[in-house]
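For reproducibility, we list the full input for the pyridoxal-5'-phosphate complex.
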Amino acid sequence: MSIVGNLLQIRSTLPTQVTLIAVSKTKPNELILEAYASGQKDFGENYVQELCDKYEQLPKDIRWHFIGHLQSNKVKNIAPFVYLIHGVDSFKLLKEINKEAKKNNRTINCLLQLFITNEKTKFGLSFEEADAILTSDELKQLTNVSIKGFMAMASNTDNEDQIRSEFRSVKTFATKYPQLSVLSYGMSSDRNIAIEEGSTMIRVGSSIFGERNYTK
Ligand SMILES: *Cc1c(COP(=O)(O)O)cnc(C)c1O
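The corresponding predicted structure, in tokenized form, follows.
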């Protein structure tokens, strides 16, 4: 199927509260423009340089989501334009985002990334660490960041029950913070489970653009 066909198919299954982010990492501008022409405005990238290049080259009304692991020293590159940073996993990073947002005279929207698997390689905060950030006095001084909700990735497994219970743990945790209503979980393979478990943002790459030829 075509990119537009894929998008239409996915959109037709989405409840209204769910935003579809087209994950365009490693994909060329022509393909992004095809998706854009069909009305897709939210795109996700996970490498800073690639995101900056695409921002320069593509329409300015695209909402760019940074979904990768962000290093503090790279925040300045995306601070002028990024729409939502999904993977905030430390107070240090939040402070850096605040500093760069201030320099750019804007507020940057962020999600706290939660660690919900037992895999060693994934980034994120424990629920306790997220609580500590959200209840700290220091957070009140960060006037140029706005925490909107949470992001998470489930285990890379075929076990649907496990994926479901991992997503559910985020939803349950988030009920403590009703004002933080954005829940970013679900990718190509597990998006339907994610939606059933309360996701409000799915990040879908290969089901739209096809398999990536290489992983960076
Ligand atoms: C690559 C990526 C996705 C999309 O993955 P697909 O399996 O291609 O849908 C979603 N979220 C993050 C954080 C990613 O890095």
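Residues 160-174 form the longest helix (15 residues). The chain has ten helices and eight strands. Both points were considered when choosing residues for closer inspection.
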